[in-house]
Amino acid sequence: MTLEAKEQKPAMGKDFVPGPVLLLGAPGVGKGTQAQILMEAWGIPQISTGDIIRANIAAKTPLGVEFGELVASGHLVPDDLVNAMVADRLSQSDCGRGYILDGFPRTLPQADWLDEHLARVGGLPVVAVSMEVGYTQLLGRITGRRTCPVCKSIYNVFSSPPKVDGVCDVEGAALEQRADDTEEKFAERMKVFHAQTAPVIEHYRTLGRFEVVDGDREVEAVTGDIVAAIARLRKK
């Protein structure tokens, strides 16, 4: 862990108010792992648009019913509808001290709306931290990934292979590779990621609420630098 990250260690306590945090990064960069660490350390939820939409549909809320009807009829779902669901979720008590944003905002209009909404309700502004790892390293993480179908243990043929090639150390079952964990699929996902994320990154960079951390290190070191970046951004 860097000296700067160590100096910011107190910010990992639950007395720290992180506010809304947007973690950015390409597929395989480790956003999910870092989000879970921060959620537990700060006692805040992860706000996923997918989860919000599914919850509204399951509860048959007016917004969920409208969303389901639009999808069923083949129509595009307008940002206004997704924004309304997000606004409702952010108003709940567990979001009072902060939350980790997952999958939102994906576009510049969504980022603009979120800024305006938070200003309107008197909330802290979003701070964004991007985890960066080189393309070759990410490709190895994705294409080398293998999973046990029984115990769900995850291996990587390049960095953390099983003792016996293709066999789970625990269950002895044949390891499986996800259908989309191929170089071709990864290249497609990276194109979509850059096309969608570039405007959002530039938005927060222009506002002075964006930092980059090196994601190609041990998990604890990355966590420390993310915490330090958020603490710095909150002091601005």
Structure commentary:
The protein is α/β, with parallel strands linked by helices and 236 residues long. The chain has one domain: Rossmann fold, CATH 3.40.50.300. Helices cover 49% and strands 14% of the residues. The strands form 2 sheets. A 5-stranded parallel β-sheet has the order 2-3-1-4-7, with helices on both faces. Strands 5-6 form a two-stranded antiparallel sheet. A hairpin with a 6-residue loop joins strand 5 and strand 6. Helix 2 (31-42) packs across helix 9 (219-235) and helix 3 packs across helix 5. The chain is globular, with a radius of gyration of 19 Å.
Q: What structural keywords apply?
A:
7 strands, Rossmann fold, 14% strand, alpha/beta, five-stranded parallel beta sheet, cytoplasm, kinase, 236 residues, disordered N terminus, two-stranded antiparallel sheet
